[in-house]
Amino acid sequence: MAQTIAPRAALAADDDAPTSEALLERIMNSLDDDKAEEVVQISLHGKSSIADYMVVASGRSSRQVAAISENLADRLKQEFGLPCKMEGKDTGDWVLIDAGDVIVHVFRPEVREFYQLEKMWMPTGSTAQ
Fold first, then answer.
1. What is the pLDDT of residues 72-90, one digit of tens each?
2. Is the Cβ–Cβ distance between 122 and 72 less than 8 Å?
3. How far apart are CA 9 and CA 2, in angstroms?
4. Would the pTM of this model clear 0.90, i.e. be above it?
5. Fewer Cβ within 10 Å of end Cβ, the chain: N or C?
6. 118 Cβ partners below 8 Å, 6+ apart?
7. 104 Cβ partners below 8 Å, 6+ apart?
């Protein structure tokens, strides 16, 4: 039997699910509350079907990266009932948080500089928001 998968837009139309813009706003506020640095938001509309937005941020240390990530996941679960998948929290160098319509990457500065993730997704010649 074939499995039918609903498009992302249809899932976001559910009254209980936050819109990707509301989710992005809460994520940006959470990162600001926890003193994340060099926060960049990238629209993935028309670029990828994995999410609507990507957010890249830095923490000053492995401990801060882990704390920013944990606090964000806790806030999204409490406020939206959204369980987030998280990878990399144990090492604290690069934590990926999958919040559905928004993917968040939190790096230590040296690791972020090495991978330059946002450069892959931003249009040529554009600057970070």
1. 999 999 999 999 999 998 8
2. no
3. 21
4. no
5. N
6. 40, 42, 54, 56, 128
7. 27, 31, 54, 55, 56, 57, 69, 72, 96, 97
